[in-house]
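Form 7-S
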Amino acid sequence: MKKLSKVLAVVLAAMFVVACFAGCSSKESKKTITLATSADFPPYESIGDNGDYVGIDIDFAQAIADKLGYELKVENMDFDSVITSVASGKSQMGMAGLTITEERLQNVDFSSAYANGIQAVIVKEGSPIKSVDDLYAPGASYKVGAQISTTGDIYFSADIKDGKTTCTIEEYATGAEAISSLSTGKIDAVIIDNEPAKSFVAANDGLTILDSQFANESYAVALPKNGELNEEIKKAIDELISDGTVQKIVDKYISAK
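Output:
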């Protein structure tokens, strides 16, 4: 009987070890979904005081991952690399205040729109530029800055090419670099999304946002063409929009501003 008890104890112990190992393996092998972003675009994405990623897009991406049962991995990169990362399949999602454009649709797919974005123009206080129309006045020769590959850059560059404005454009790797050039007088204006514009103006004395809008657009999530998770992600996004989760996230960062 003692011998049988010992055998039974050994078997149970072995089963316990296997169960623990299986549990650990399951936890360690939990699938990951990767988000490509450019964390220099508050309040949509930025680096927090603790070095973590924070913002509307980060919280939204986490909600998508949680709904699908994935671990979220955030990859920070230059803005103009976000679409490339998604198009190549290295990232399953791209979020960085992205709007749907014909150019981008050639390389990636998009989800439903989840937030509204206004393209604003920042100038120095006392600037002769009083409205967006001044950038399109006959003979205008202002230097306008924009973060490279943003819609502000794309739209204004197209207007220059089409002869709609005689101003010039200076492209920068980040919005912060464009703002720095504006503050030091190297350029005359910066086209950038309205919410980041508010943050930059609040942090830099002597700057102001024009009352007139440059453009009004909607943000969506970039997805790989024919990506394996596309349908799951799109469904999760639509559900998170419908149940009010997305609006709560947006309100958390914007409503009090």
